[in-house]
Design brief:
The chain is 42% helix and 16% strand. It is α/β, with parallel strands linked by helices. It has one domain (5-228): Aldolase class I (TIM Barrel). Bound molecules: ligand LLZGTKA7.
Length: 232
């Protein structure tokens, strides 16, 4: 089985990050490097993780003018990461430029996905920034845009995947953070689901951070979650 779990390696320094990474097996998960560790430790850190056998999702959520995002995505591809992303709210010209920048990498190009509506956001957060649509409506609008630009998938809440699989097709990857095993804290997440329900609904990849990284035994936490999943 190829594990659907991507662990969000969010730590305040490389020492604690390595302490975690050295305790999990690359056959059981991929690793996601986000803004915190990338800002601290940069591309060399990503290369070292890859040399340990982990596939890396570089989660920098690029959101800028088309030219800048295209160059950033190209730099991510040079790094050899497995997946990277942009914000769909940057619009179709931006997403198209990002996709075009990967063309010459051929089969070595990373998967390129787009963030729809952050899983930390609920209806009131959208209203605050002038969006009248509810999270499902807004995420759908952005996911359709991302698919039309030729992206490989989207980041969305597991609450949206059932609808997205029907509307966007089985090949379009749905990557879902906001995953919380039953009885664990939601923290700052708002649109959450358990790992088991997310996979049953159709999530392709589960992004899980604190429920695994803050555990005393991260490999056990990972195994316990994997044991609850029925992969089709
Ligand atoms: O909509 C989004 C997009 C990205 N994330 C990222 O996923 C992890 C989740 O970590 P937890 O500790 O499991 O909450 C984190 O790195 C976010 O930056 C997201 O949560 N929602």
């Amino acid at each position: 089985m190829s594990s659907p779990i991507i662990v969000a390696v969010d730590f305040p320094n490389t020492k604690t990050a390595w302490n975690f990474i050295d305790r999990v097996d690359p056959k059981d998960c991929r690793l996601k490097i986000g803004k915190e560790l990338f800002t601290l430790a940069g591309p060399d850190f990503v290369r070292k993780i890859q040399s340990k056998g982990f596939e890396v999702f570089l989660d920098l959520k690029f959101h800028d003018i088309p030219n800048t995002v295209a160059k950033a995505v190209s730099a991510a591809a040079e790094l050899g990461v497995w997946m990277t992303n942009v914000h769909a709210s940057g619009g179709s010209r931006m997403m198209q430029a990002a996709k075009d920048a990967l063309y010459h990498f051929g089969k070595d190009a990373p998967l390129l996905i787009a963030v729809t509506v952050l899983t930390s956001m609920e209806q009131s957060d959208l209203q605050e920034i002038g969006i009248a649509a509810n999270p499902l409506e807004q995420a759908t609008r952005l996911a359709v845009l991302a698919k039309n630009c030729g992206l490989d998938g989207v980041v969305c809440s597991a609450k949206e995947v059932q609808s997205f699989k029907i509307r966007l097709g089985s090949q379009f990857k749905l990557v879902t953070p906001g995953i919380r095993p039953a009885g664990t804290s939601a923290n700052d997440q708002r649109r959450i689901m358990t790992p088991q329900r997310a996979i049953a609904a159709g999530s392709d990849y589960l992004v899980i951070g604190r429920p695994i990284t803050q555990s005393e035994d991260p490999q056990k936490a990972l195994n316990d979650i994997l044991a609850t999943l029925t992969i089709k």
